[in-house]
Amino acid sequence: MSDIEIRDDRTAGRLEAWGDGEVVGRIEYFVLEAPERALVPVHTIVEPAHEGKGIAGSLARELYTIARGEGVAVAPLCPYVVKWAERHPDEAPDADPELLRAAKEWLVAHPDRF
Question: Model's pTM, two decimal places?
Answer without folding.
Answer: 0.93
